[in-house]
């Protein structure tokens, strides 16, 4: 079984790459989803987040307001580091469990989609690292159009992440996502077939 880590900064198009791989029959593990699972009301991580960032990060239904939390952490590196210390180890264990489950079920290939794959030290979970890269102006345009995040917020988030050039040192493959979807689909399909998995 092969495990591919798909990573890239926000707006790079890694979710689109994963959707293409899912169409090719690959099992996807989304690290963001696992991180959000750790936020469940009254869980240990939920309590630690409130202790660290205050009750203002809660919605009326006691769920964590991810937008409010994002506003706090993306403009303060110390706060972001604290959030990652609370969430990453738990999400990592959940990813390990999911990989083991899929291995038992006989999966031939798994993709772990994780923005912070490199920064969080998750590279030991995967056999290959595929880095998705897009020019900053393209990433900003995608995020403002599709996610509804304004340009200033997008730039703050991009600056909080490790530069793509730095991530390239860890990558087995770099996917330049500066064209349209069919071009991206062709690149990803070609890389997939190169792996030669049954």
Portion in strands: 5-15%
Say what the CATH topology is.
Rossmann fold
- Mean of residue pLDDT? 91
CATH homologous superfamily label: P-loop containing nucleotide triphosphate hydrolases
Instruction: Order the strands across the largest sheet as they lie in space.
Output: 2-3-1-4-5
What structural category do the secondary elements indicate?
alpha/beta
Gyration radius (Cα, Å) is 17 Å
Architecture, according to CATH?
A: 3-Layer(aba) Sandwich
Q: How many beta-strand segments?
A: 5
Written overview of the protein:
The protein has helices spanning 14-23, 31-38, 44-53, 66-73, 77-104, 136-147, 151-159, 164-167, 181-195, and strands spanning 2-7, 27-30, 109-113, 128-133, 173-176. Helix 1 (14-23) crosses helix 9 (181-195) and helix 3 (44-53) packs antiparallel against helix 5. Helix content is 53%, strand content 13%. It is an alpha/beta fold and 198 residues long. The protein contains 9 helices and 5 strands; from the N terminus they run E-H-E-H-H-H-H-E-E-H-H-H-E-H. It starts with a strand and ends with a helix. The longest helix has 28 residues, at 77-104. The chain has a 5-stranded parallel sheet, sandwiched between helices. The radius of gyration is 17 Å and the shape is globular.
